TrEMBL record:
Protein name, as recorded: Tetratricopeptide repeat-like superfamily protein
Gene Ontology MF annotations: pyridoxal phosphate binding
Domain of life where this protein originates: Eukaryota
Matching Gene3D superfamilies: Alanine racemase
Length: 181
């Protein structure tokens, strides 16, 4: 028997609540405030009905990386589709980016040569197969530090997006280590 549309849609709001609860738990253990963590709900390949349910549940930070889907979805969620996620392409399965050694050069290029863009941070991932270690995430936080220093901008103007739902708790613990006991 096929699940009803409402039952399927209920999964999205439930998943959001679960992620937010996990963020709350790990930030409490680390002694930081959960509002310092921004959860970006990635809408790529998801139907507007699921995105809308997450929006109706109160979430206001969405990401998309397919141009066609951005054009369709953004007006329906009151333009809260505000993060480009990964390659901003046309339904391409390709993944790319720069190695940590190239992040400063890329950030400088965007800041100096892409005048219609405002550099505001790095979107990073650990290991693509979710085998990230503490060292992987420390490397990403070092990239952030190198970039804001090289650009001469305040640290808070260089956000660091680290990973996805499979290992975000480890990423949070790197940025906000557990207090010494």
């Amino acid at each position: 028997m096929a699940a009803s549309s409402a039952a399927i849609d209920g999964i999205a709001a439930s998943a959001l609540r679960s992620v937010l609860q996990r963020v709350q738990q790990v930030t409490e253990r680390c002694g930081c405030e959960s509002h310092r963590i921004r959860v970006v709900a990635v809408s790529k390949t998801k139907p507007v009905s699921l995105v809308r349910q997450v929006y109706d549940a109160g979430h206001r930070c969405f990401g998309e990386n397919y141009v066609q889907e951005l054009i369709e979805k953004a007006p329906q969620i009151t333009n809260h589709l505000n993060h480009a996620v990964g390659n901003f392409e046309s339904l391409s399965p390709a993944k790319s980016g720069v190695e940590p050694s190239g992040c400063v050069e890329l950030a400088k290029h965007v800041s100096l040569n892409c005048l219609n863009l405002q550099f505001c941070g790095l979107m990073t991932i650990g290991m693509p197969d979710y085998t990230s270690t503490l060292e992987n995430f420390k490397t990403l936080t070092n990239c952030q530090s190198e970039v804001w220093k090289a650009l001469g901008i305040p640290e808070e103007q260089c956000e660091l997006s680290m990973r996805m739902s499979g290992d975000f708790e480890l990423a949070i613990r790197i940025v906000f280590p557990l207090p010494s006991r």
